[in-house]
Amino acid sequence: MIWLTWRQFRTPAWVAATALAAAAILLAVTGLHLAHLYDTSGIGTCHGHGDCGQLASNFLTQVAASNLYHTIYLLGIAGLYVAPAIIGIFWGAPLVTREIENGTLRLAWNQSVTRTRWIAVKLSLVGLLAMATGGLLSLMVTWSDSPIDRAAAMATGPGPALLSRITPVLFGARGIAPIGYAAFAFALGVTAGVLIRRTVPAMAATLAVFITVQIAWPMLVRPHLIAPVRSITAFDAGSIIGLSMQNGGQMTVLTAVSKPGAWVLTNQVVDAAGHPFTGPAPQACTTNSFPVCADALARLHLRQVVTYEPASRYWPLQGYETGIFVALALVLAAFCYWRIRRRLS
Amino acid sequence: MTAVLESSGLGKRYRRRWALADCTLTIPAGHVVGLVGPNGAGKTTLLHLATGLLAPTAGTIEVLGGEPASSAAQLAKVGFVAQDTPTYAGLSVADHLRLGAHLNPGWDHGLARRRIERLGLDPGQRAGKLSGGQRAQLALTLAIAKRPELLLLDEPIASLDPLARRDFLGILMETTAEQEVSVVMSSHLVADLERICDYLIVLVDSRVRLAGQVDELLATHHRLTGPRRDPGTLPAGWQVVEESHTDRQSTLLIRAGTPVHDPGWAVDPVGLEDLVLGYMSQAASGAPARRPEMEAQR
Amino acid sequence: MVIEFHLDAGSGVAPYLQVIQQVRQALRLGLLDVGDQLPTVKDVVARLAINPNTVLKAYRELEYEGLAAARPGVGTFVTRTLSDGSLAAHGPLRRDLQRWIARARRAGLDEESIEALYRDTVRAATREEVI
What ipTM was reported for this prediction? Predict the structure, then answer.
C-alpha cells in the first residue's frame, strides 16, 4: 500500500521538491546577504536598548528601501500561507475524489487491502509529507529572514513594530506553525473530498474553509491561547499620537505604545474609574493650541491600559498553535477513517 | 457443494428507490453464472454488495462463507472487474502488475506476466493509451492473477467489439478450466452469456425472477402452441411465464416439472434468449406477461 | 494439436453435441487415429469461448461410446476409429456418386429434390435392413 500511495503521489511530490529546491536557492542567497548586512550594521555589538533600538530601525529601513529584499520578504510570507492552501487543494481534496470520479476505487478496494488500511496509509504518508513540506519551507524562510526578525524585536518606533514575529501576519509565516497549517489543510481537503465526492467542489470548499480559518483564528482564538498581559501606566501626554473631538464635547485620545517585539491587542486611554475616556473635552482643548490641551489632559488622572502578548510568549504560542492545528488535523483524519469504514461510497 | 454466494432477503435502497429488493439466492460453487437483466435491474448493485463496495439496507449476504470485504483474507478470495473495467490511466501495464503484487499476498506473478505476454501488451504502455479491449484484458488479468475463489464481472464486454469479446471470454473460460474458480458475470445481453454459462440468474426490476442450472431450465421450460384456451383451465403443475392469444390460437411459455404429453398442444423447446425474454416481460408482481390480443383481419 | 473444433452458434445443435459430431467426423475421415490426443479442454475453451463443462460432457460421452479414454493429468486419447477399413472404398464410391448426381441433374432435378430423393432412399434401405 505504501508503494501504491507513493506511485500515485510521485508527480506532486517531485513538483513540491522542485519548488522547495528553487526556494532554497533563492532564500539561501538572500539570507546570506541579510546576515552580512546585519553584521555590518553594528547591531550585534551594541549594548543596552538606547543604542540598539536606533541601529535596528536603521537596518530595517535599509532593508525596506531595497525593492529586491522587500519583495522576497513579502513572497516568503505569502508563500507560507499559500503553501498549506495548495497542499489542501491539490494533495488533500483529490486524494479520494479522483479515485471516485475515475472509478478506480472499485479497483483499489478490491485488492487484498481493507478500505481502512487504504485510507490510513494514504492519510499518514501524504500527511507526513505535507507536514515536512510546510516545515522545510518555514525553516528556510525563518532562517533567511532571521536578521530582520531580530532587528524588529529591538527597534523602537511605531513602524518596525509591525514586523515583530509574534504579530498575526508574521506569526503564521514563521517557526513551526506552518507544519500545523499544512497538516490541517491536507486533512481538511481529504475530508471535503470524502463528504463532497467531486474533485472541483471539494477543492473550492477546502479553499473557502481554510481561508476563513486563517482569517478568523488570529482574531478570535489566538489572543486567548495564553491570557494576555495587561499593563496600566500613567497617562503620558507626551506620547499622544491621536486626538479627535466631536461637537457634543466627546473626545478620544490615542497614545503610543512602546513594547518592542510584542503583539499589542488593545490600547486604550481610561479615566480614573477605569472606563474608556470619551470626554468631555476640557475647556483648554477647544482652543487650537495643542500643548495647552495636552497639559489639561495630563491633569485628568487618566491612565493608559494596554493588553498585549509579550515577545517572550512567541514560542509557547507557536507550540499551542501548532499543537492545536495538528490535533484538528488528526480529528479530521479520524473522521475520514470512520466515514470510509462505515458508509461506503 | 458449498455455495459461493448466499443471500437472504437482501435489499439496497437509495433514498426512496429500492435498487435491489428481496433477493434470496444460493449460488453453488464450480459454475459459470450468468446474471442477466435489463439496464437498471440491479445487477451492478448485487455485484457491489457481493464485493463489499456497498452495504445492505436490508437482509444479509455471505460470500464464500464470509462477510464481503470484511478482512484482507476475504478480499483475497474474490476477484472483481467493475463496469467499464477501470484502470489507472497514468500507470503503465507493468505498474498495474506491481500494484497487484504489492497488494495481494496470493499474487501469481508468473501467471500475470504470461498473460500479458500472450495478449501482446507492452508493459511500459500507460493504461490510458490502451484500447478498450486491452484495458478489459488488463483488468481481468489483475483479477485472475490474485488466484481468487470467486470471480465477479460487471458487464465487462458491453462496450467491446466482437473480436475483443471473443478474446475476453476465451481467456475467461481458459481460466475456469485451469483454476478452481467460480464465475459470476453480468450482462444485459443473453447472447454474451449463452456460450459460457451453466447457471443463470434473471434480475428484472430489482428482483430475482429466475435462478437455476441452464440445463435444467431449458429442460423444464416449453413453448406450447395450440387452440385458444383460457389460462384458468391449464393443469396446476404448469407455471405460465408468458402468454399471448389470438381469437383462435394460444401461445404459452410454461415451466413444468413433468414432460408435457397433452396431444392438444404442439410442444417446442425454448432457447435461452427467448426464455429470458419471457421472464423479463413479466409484470412486477410476477404475473405472466400477456401480449396484447391480436384481432383477426376480417 | 491434431484437430480443431469450431462452433456453429446458430445451428440449434447443442455445443457438446457439435463437439462429439466433429470428433466422429474426424475419426471417419481418418484425420484422427488410435492414440491421437484430443485437444485439451483448456485449448478448446480458449478458442471457442465455451464453458469447460460442455467439453467435459462431450469427452465423457465419447468415453462412454468407447471412442476415447481420459488419462488423468495427461489428456484424452482416441481408443477406436470409425473408419473400419472402408476408407479405401471411398474413392470409387465418390466417383459413382458424382456420376449419379450428373444424371439426376440432366433429368431435371434441382438440389433440394436430389437431397430429398437421397434421404428417402437411405431411410427406406435402413428400414428394410431392420425388417
Answer: 0.87
